[in-house]
Design a protein that fits this description.
By secondary structure, this protein is of the alpha/beta class. It folds into two domains: 127 residues, Udp-n-acetylmuramoylalanyl-d-glutamate--2,6- Diaminopimelate Ligase, Chain: A, domain 1; 106 residues, NIF3 (NGG1p interacting factor 3)-like (Udp-n-acetylmuramoylalanyl-d-glutamate--2,6- Diaminopimelate Ligase, Chain: A, domain 1, 3-Layer(aba) Sandwich), CATH 3.40.1390. Strands 5-6-8-9-10-7 form a six-stranded mixed sheet, with helices on both faces. Strands 1-4-3-2-11 form a five-stranded mixed sheet, sandwiched between helices. Strand 5 and strand 6 form a beta hairpin. Helix 2 packs parallel to helix 4. The longest helix is centred in the last third of the chain and has 14 residues. It binds zinc ion. The site of zinc ion has 4 residues, from loops.
């Protein structure tokens, strides 16, 4: 399949025009007339990932966060991006980003995908642009399910009381992957926020509204890699795409010990 056709199919399904206006989904760099070889999926395109993509003979890279978020000229001032860009040109590697247009998808979007995985998907409705309002989410179940997938290994849990005593009935439970800490400003008192990033000033708002926060860390977006792989396997026939390789190089923190 031609890269051009592959790109058009992604655009048809996710509709790049549906992305947020501050975002830059879709083509980052495209070699239209090349045949799609292997495909590489990563959260962020960097020198480590581009080296692996080349190593695995991939000439199409799908990323979650756009490679060019700001203006191209600006982004290429970053040394690592400049090095990556040279490699893309040299090896004719196309890069397509699926960020907010992907996240809004009812089936594959990260929040819907995670809600299903954590078994908390009953009757959810959208809360903000991407975040979900979950019905009947029980924190004990969320913790048990999260532990199964090791999602809590980088998580920080903020609660005014002891979480273990929380048989809590929360007024509402919101799931917002990525940097959704800002949601505490409009959330109800005594509620629960599951997110990937929250700033200190937002935590103080949460503390004073008795909002419990589970901050999984931005790595929770690894779900994008899983979900987009499932999407490709479902939507394309096995003769249309070759092998798919996944980012194994997520930058993870560890609890400090000596
Ligand atoms: Zn993100």
């Amino acid at each position: 399949m031609l890269v051009k056709n592959f790109y058009n199919i992604l655009n048809k399904y996710f509709n790049f025009r549906k992305q947020e206006k501050w975002d830059n989904n879709g083509k980052q760099i495209i070699f239209k007339k090349e045949q799609v070889k292997n495909i590489y999926i990563c959260l962020d395109l960097d020198e480590i990932n581009v080296a692996e993509a080349i190593n695995q003979n991939c000439n199409v890279i799908i990323t979650h966060h756009p490679f060019f978020f700001a203006k191209k000229k600006q982004e290429l001032k970053l040394e690592f991006k400049n090095n990556v860009y040279k490699e893309l040109l040299k090896h004719k590697i196309s890069v397509i980003s699926l960020h907010t247009c992907f996240d809004k998808d009812k089936k594959f979007g990260i929040n819907n995908y995670l809600a299903k995985k954590l078994n908390i998907e009953k009757g959810q409705t959208s809360y903000d642009n991407y975040s979900l309002l979950l019905r009947d989410a029980n924190i004990k179940n969320i913790i048990t399910e999260s532990e199964k997938y090791n999602y809590l290994s980088n998580a920080l849990i903020y609660n005014n009381n002891n979480i273990k005593n929380t048989e809590s009935i929360f007024t509402q439970t919101i799931l917002g992957s990525g940097a959704c800490g800002y949601l505490v400003n409009k959330m109800k008192k005594n509620s629960l926020l599951l997110t990937g990033e929250i700033k200190w000033n937002e935590l103080i708002v949460a503390k004073n509204k008795n909002i419990t926060v589970i901050n999984f860390g931005h790595n929770m977006e690894y779900a994008f890699i899983e979900a987009s792989q499932i999407f490709l396997l479902e939507k394309f026939k096995s003769n249309e795409i070759n092998e798919i390789f996944l980012d194994k190089f997520i930058f993870k923190g560890k609890p400090y010990s000596n």
